Amino acid sequence: MGKRVALVLAGCGVFDGSEIHEASAALVHLSRGGAEVKIFAPNIEQRDVVNHLKGSPTEEKRNVLVESARLARGNIQDLAELKASEFDAVIFPGGFGVAKNLCSWAVDGKNCTVNEHVNSTLQAFHSAKKPIGLCCISPVLAAKVFPGCEVTVGQDKNVDGRFPDAETASAIAELGCKHICKNVNESHVDNANKIVTTCAFMCKAPLHEIFDGIGTMVQEVLKLA
């Protein structure tokens, strides 16, 4: 019997929601791993709406759950309804929506607050000793909620211009967590906390390398489950 995995989205689109390629990669690897997946998102208003053609904010108002339903092909539930007891693991793709909608990292950095349902979901899986997978900017959620945990967002220096957001590693360290440097095609497993992370689009890399890195994260999550 396949593992039961909850996937938590933050909208639809890299600049104001979930990164579409990361969400798709996670779903493909979960499917290949024989997992039974259900998708969730918080029923809240997005912090902002970005015109992805121009890269600039608009005056629109959009709902995170409604926008996430685009990625879920309509088959999605309110995050408030997620019960950790019904799943073996949870995975969070990245995208700016994580830092804007699931928490306030985009505005407040390490002083951010985490959405109540995101926080309670993380706490529930952690307390039940069930694995948590996070990619791209999503590892900051674990860093904020679980001081002392180990995560990766890639490298802590902008190696060859491939890691423009390397300062995120320093902010994670300031939260009392350990940042582990990893390449884009790798993931890090914090066995003590059952947290698996990979950098994905925190690295400027070809799409297939990001896809492969997310694959290692998914595989490790399923092993821990």
Automatic annotation (TrEMBL):
The gene is Gatd3a_1. CDD domains: GATase1_ES1. InterPro entries: Class_I_gatase-like. This is GAL3A protein. SUPFAM superfamilies: Class I glutamine amidotransferase-like. It comes from the Eukaryota.
